[in-house]
Amino acid sequence: MDRLAAFQHIAAQASRGELTFPSNVSASIKLQQALNDPDCHSEAAVKLIQADPLLSARAVAIANSVAYNRSGNEITNVRSAVQRLGVRTLQSLVAALIVRQIGSQITDPGLRAKAAQLWQHTAHVAALAQVIARRVTRVDPDTALFAGIVHEVAGFYMLSQAGAYPGIMDGEPEDWVEHGEVAIGRGVFAKLVIPEAVQASVEALWHGMRALPPETLGDTLLLANDLAPIPSPLHERPGATTPQAARTIDFVVGEGTLHDIMAESADEVKSLFAVLML
Prior knowledge:
This protein is mainly α and 278 residues long. It is built from 15 helices and two strands.
């Protein structure tokens, strides 16, 4: 099977919902669904997070990050972390866990290296999107963080399947974009029950239609993608700027500029990125 036929085969399977996930992803999806329940109150969320030691540690860490701990009061337990973060930020932490679990079944060293770089890129985009949403576009920052975390989930799924198709990720990256990313992405989003607004923002990223100054969640994600210091190892987005050109992006925001805001928010971005990399 040649590369294009392999992309189309995996994409067709994804479109039909025939997805292959590691066994631990199912448990994480159930946790995500429980947190999505409108009747899930903070005490229930505490019990759900406490049941997973890794999530417990990450919840406390992100609650103590610069982005969420502006008072400087450090907390040391899950209950306080849930109260500070809220359920929606916890959903982002679970989404980050799911994305990394999807990539955990990769054994090929070359593919693992791509997955590691893809997660670094993802963590940068998510951290930048949260700050850009709060300081620039004024869209919901929790939704922006979540969108940043899941925006490359199609790539992680593709890498997790690539071992069965030797050489599929070699060659021109445009082949993956044209013949696999959208169909696979939509299939994975459906399986993970990703909200429609988040799906729409990621599709805006796929098509590369960013406005300056940015206004929407999709614009937020595109700007964060352009500003991320680590690029995706899979492809360059249509219309994406080079790393050098990204540093020159600037525009007026209120009484300041994008450059001013990003300089002021550097510690927040760094702190969020560090937590997501745990």
